[in-house]
Amino acid sequence: MSTVAVHSLWTTAVDxxxxxxxxxxxxxxxxxxxxxxxxxxxxxxxxxxxxxxxRYHAQVFVSVVALAAAFAAVVALASGGYGTTKxxxxxxxxxxxxxxxxxxxxxxxxxxxxxxxxxxxxxxxPAAHGNRVDSFAAQAASVPGSDSEKAAVKAGFxxxxxxxxxxxxxxxxxxFPSANDLLTLFVALExxxxxxxxxxxxxxxxxxxSQEAAVKYFLLGAFASAFTLFGIALLYGYAGSVSYATIAQxxxxxxxxxxxxxxxxxxxxxxxxxxxxxxxxxxxxxxxAVPFHMWTPDVYQGAPTPVTGFMxxxxxxxxxxxxxxxxxxxxxxxRWDWRPVMWAVAIVTMLGGAIVAITQTDIxxxxxxxxxxxxxxxxxxVIATTRSGVSxxxxxxxxxxxxxIGAFAVVTLVRDAGGEATHLSKWAGLGRRSPLVAAVxxxxxxxxxxxxxxxxxxGKFAVFKAAAEGGAIPLVVIGVISSAVAAFFYIRVxxxxxxxEPNPEGPTVAVPSPLTLTAIGAGVAxxxxxxxxxxxxxNLASQASVFVR
Amino acid sequence: MENLIALLIAAxxxxxxxxxxxxxxxxxxxxxxxxxxxxxxxxxxxxLFTDMLGKAAxxxxxxxxxxxxxxxxxxxxDVTFRLDQLSMTFVLLITGVGSLIHLYSIGYMEHDERRxxxxxxxxxxxxxxxxLVLADNYLLLYVxxxxxxxxxxxxxxxxxxxxxxxxxxxxxxxxxRVGDMGLSIAIMLMFTTFGTFAFGPVLDSADKVGEGRLTAxxxxxxxxxxxxxxxxxxxxxxxxxxxxxxxxxxxxxxxxMVTAGVYLIVRSGAIFNAAPDAQLVVTxxxxxxxxxxxxxxxxxxxxxxxxxxxxxxxxxxxxxAAGLGPIGYVFAIMHLVTxxxxxxxxxxxxxxxxxxxxxxxxxxxxxxxxxxxxxxxxTFGLGxxxxxxxxxxxxxFSKDKIIEAAFAKGGTEGWxxxxxxxxxxxxxxxxxxxxxxxTFFGEKRWQPDEQGNEPHPHESPxxxxxxxxxxxVGSVFAGGFFSLGDRFLHWLExxxxxxxxxxxxxxxxxxxxxxxxxxxxxxxxxxxYGRRPVPAVAPRGSLLTRVARRDLLQDDFNHVVLVRGGExxxxxxxxxxHTLVDGVVNGTAASVGGLSGxxxxxxxxxxxxxxxxxxxxxxxxxxxxxxxxxx
Lengths: 549, 631
Prior knowledge:
- The complex is a heterodimer.
- By secondary structure, chain A is mostly helical.
- Chain A has one domain (about 10-15, about 25-545).
- In chain A, about 70% of the residues lie in helices and about 0% in strands.
- Chain A has helices spanning about 10, 30-50, 50-80, 100-120, 145-155, 160-175, 180-200, 205-240, 245-250, 270-285, 295-300, 305-330, 335-355, 365-385, 385-415, 430-435, 435-450, 455-470, 475-500, 515-530, 535-545, and strands spanning about 90, 95, 415, 420, 510.
- Chain B is mostly helical.
- Chain B has 24 helices and 2 strands.
- Chain B has a two-stranded antiparallel sheet with strand order 1-2.
- In chain B, helix 2 (about 30-55) runs parallel beside helix 4 (about 115-135) and helix 8 (about 210-230) runs antiparallel to helix 11 (about 260-265).
- Chain B starts with a helix and ends with a helix.
- The interface between A and B is medium-sized, with 40 and 29 residues.
């Protein structure tokens, strides 16, 4: 045993200056993320130092300004050519600045912006002791039903921490689809997941249900993260690197110099296949694909509805972005292995989501299963492995996020004495009493169902077209069948709203502030514009559909 | 000059729009406005006609491109008008006779409170018909074709408060739809065959295409023509269409609508020339219809229905001629024009009689009217002489040419067709003499109606008699004018082409035979109705008479075969829909719902079950990935 058991770090003196190089960071190109993270930190400081009664306004102001500024930065970068000709790898290989990244970041930022609008809504819940309140718990730390909770409610507290939490989540989501090495990917995953777990627990009403949802989400999320992390380890063992580009080269066989420390594992395809499958599984958990979807209905139902809307839209965008980059940049050489598997996942996801949704009786659970089915449809576009597959997924995600935020925003409006009235029976005859709200919801449902002249149709058409061109005709057939099944429960809600007798003790429709109205209005406008004249946005998505390698 | 073509259509179209949208404030002047615009269109047509006469015979075709209608890569439809000798003939007929009918309607519809609307519809009818004959491609022609169908529906059912009128309008519309299907299929076939449906390219290259294709197109065009021109087997709507006001009947029968089918066949001559089988079917349809209509005309006591049978028969002559190919095209159109004069005159005369007889239509209640309405008697009489082919009058020249041409087709076919045409001429003489005698001669047979109102036969006002006089002049002289020096032949030949047939019998023989048959037919009618008193109630009559009174069982046939058959088909389809289709659909829905209920139980709310599901999923995912590599 004369071999060195001590790492060379302990035995070799390091030349302190010449070996260490300062990382080169392109701050301007990373500005969207930096702005959002910076604003989140400012939000924490606000919580610490600003008087309680001013915090709400300060937080909303900071969040809106930061998200708008970040979106402006994304637009500036895109128009500066960073999405196309000047696309490159920034931050020492950690982050990609390219078309898909910028497109998805823009989508996430808009989802975040309209998410903030719904977070900030304070006219729906009846004022508690003269204080206007939003959807969040008075004091998240107090035990539900306890005296401390009652005192917090009486004092008019609100959980304004929700805003910096949202900003942190958005920050992580911005990094997620542009992450260009596996460690950055994992860090981003945790950065946006942890705030979401917290946000899920913050409901003002039905707090136990909300906390249960948060715990489930956290436990299962941690479980999925463990898989991802293990997969990353296996891939490192296979390639000797966590960099996307290097792994891709090893997969292609263009890099052969073996790290002596990894001589036993490098180039072992079993490690590659298992590792890749496990990372993909972590991402499928985030998008809510069957069989990793089971958290979705419970969490969507338990979380405060504005959080559900934001999460359903933005998480899906970020996770699909990361999945696209992983499959298209790291594993294109492996596509004959992962495509059949993804076929299977897409099929069970489309069918599972659509079929189980039929028997749902709660509108939030219904939308949760709907989101599962939509994950399946998007997966069909991912599987195309063509440029049009990427652009169709980008378009679908943009269209879907606006519909989702708008739909959940409408759900917040329909209320009875116990808060939001989410049981479907209470929505009967809504169209007779509140024709406008019901009509707007009907537009969103039609978009979910993919009826022409809505964005849902354009998106579905694009992904199915890409999938068919990619040779996945059976997948398209099953997708269309699932759409038909899904149309049943969407239309059933419309029938329920417009053709049923209103329940005399049914819910009332609250009149929201301009904030929620903006979110809903933007949802309707985008849904119709993308439905009637999708070409400009399809072209935009098409221009943004090339990954930098 | 060709820029004026669109105005031909625009004038009546404007009239229709103004009159139908203008509301009650136009009630006082609406009829004059409508008549003026129809007349303006005629004047414009006359101007274009004189301009056309000034050009060389082969340089008279002008087109006007208005705009591109449906520009799609390989599918170009333009709104382009074509004015050549053929369409010019129709323009003058439609606007000329149409204007006279407008004028007449001012008097006829005087007491109708919806007169303004009536004139709006008349204008619409003219505009649609003009579009039909001026279109430079089949698709635009189809627009006019459908417009004519719509206008005829509106006008036949103008007195919609009468259930019989509403039913008749619906019947006309439905029967016409069958023909319209033929036209649309023909246009589709043209597009797949020629890649276009513009007249020029289609007709120029017609002889370069397989004959089977052309036969199919020709038969579909014939089906369309049968619908609009009331030819067997789509003739059943024409008799019921008499429910419309009499000027409408005159318009439909003389100037518009029924002539559209003849126009379509003559215009598509190049297609038929290259498809002899289709041509043969056209002649058969024409020959059958000319006898069919004539027999029906013999049995009717309703003056308008007798005339309707006559129209069917005369159009049959035209279709027969058109089916003969280049030896017949010119004569088909010539007969169409002369028929336009005398049939319009006859209908307007019939309307004048009805006007004076409290809208009585049963000829058995007429009799001896010549002294009460002398102008009507004279003009109707001249129309009568023209239609039976009295020597020197219009019908003599035009019908004689068709009979000659039928013989000239040669062979057995020529003998059969010529014989049918000759027989038709005899029957025509019979039924028209019958109408003439029952209406204007013999004893007065009218009686008070249920309310006790005794009819007071009187001559119609000038606004009605003047058009009748003008048309009578046309009935007398048009044929001779056209035939002397073969004027009409030279006029139309550059468009339709012309060939002299090889008749086995000389023209003199045909003329002599026609005249003999004319005398025989008229003589029998005189013996039956002139020498004996006409019973006020129709006798039972022979089997043939009774069958002819029922329009040769056309409606019974349609009812038994088409209506009953359709009902059976519908019932069986409904049965299949209810049991098979609904069964499959509902079964699928139920099974999906059941599956949903079962899958739902997997979602039990326990995080541990969810984790197991994820773990299992991950295991399957990894296993599948490895398996994919292994196979």
